[in-house]
């Protein structure tokens, strides 16, 4: 799985925990903005309906009341339509963002699980240790076995988070 940062594709596994948190925060922000847009739409529709009621209650002049009521009704209809459209668009965007994040997270979990499985192979660990030794770095078999377990555990956590994001995607209206 890859994400795009500064116009360049980057594998999820290559991202720092901070970058992953930022991406997850962006997803959460998109969902919050969608909820806020929906709330704003409801408030705009309520304001427009109140304006229509106020115009209807005014008894200054029958013609003026009629014109004001018609104008308020048109305004309320247009505002409700616009608010509804905004809410639908915001909800769609939130659903799409959540669904994409779920797929990205699932892909990252699969990558982590795959690497965890590779690290259980003694020949693979030996090759990694040799490569690191060639660069003057110390890497132990015990460390790689521990990393294998950690990656597998973290993959399980990410898979659960991915399921939660998919559920949120389906529930976002």
Description of the structure:
By secondary structure, the chain is mostly helical. The protein is built from four helices and two strands; from the N terminus they run ββαααα. α1 packs antiparallel against α2 and α2 (62-118) packs antiparallel against α4 (141-171). The longest helix is centred in the middle third of the chain and has 57 residues, at 62-118. The two termini are 27 Å apart. The mean pLDDT is 89.
Task: Throw out a few tags for this protein.
173 residues, mainly alpha
Uncertain segments of ≥5 residues (pLDDT<50)? none
Secondary structure class reads: mainly alpha
Helix content: over 70%
Radius of gyration over all CA atoms, rounded: 27 Å
Order of H and E elements: EEHHHH
Instruction: Tally the helices.
Output: 4
Number of strands: 2
**Percentage of residues in strands:** under 5%
Largest sheet: number of strands, sense, barrel closure: 2 strands, antiparallel
Fold blueprint:
Blueprint: E1 2-5, E2 8-11, H1 17-57, H2 62-118, H3 122-134, H4 141-171
Antiparallel strand pairs: 1-2
Summarize the structure.
By secondary structure, this protein is mainly alpha-helical. The chain is built from 4 helices and 2 strands, in the order ββαααα.
């Amino acid at each position: 799985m890859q994400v795009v940062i500064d116009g360049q594709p980057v594998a999820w596994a290559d991202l720092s925990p901070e970058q992953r948190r930022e991406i997850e925060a962006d997803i959460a922000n998109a969902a919050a903005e969608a909820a806020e847009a929906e709330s704003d739409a409801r408030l705009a529709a309520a304001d427009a309906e109140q304006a229509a009621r106020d115009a209807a209650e005014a008894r200054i002049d029958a013609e003026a009341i009629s014109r004001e009521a018609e104008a308020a009704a048109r305004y309320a209809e247009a505002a409700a339509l616009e608010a509804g459209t905004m809410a639908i668009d915001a909800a769609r965007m939130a659903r799409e963002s959540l669904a994409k994040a779920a797929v990205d997270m699932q892909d990252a979990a699969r990558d982590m699980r795959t690497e965890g499985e590779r690290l259980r192979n003694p020949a693979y660990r030996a090759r990694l240790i040799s490569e690191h030794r060639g660069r003057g770095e110390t890497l132990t078999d015990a460390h790689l076995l521990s990393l294998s377990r950690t990656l597998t555990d973290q993959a399980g956590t990410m898979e659960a988070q991915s399921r939660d994001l998919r559920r949120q995607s389906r529930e976002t209206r």
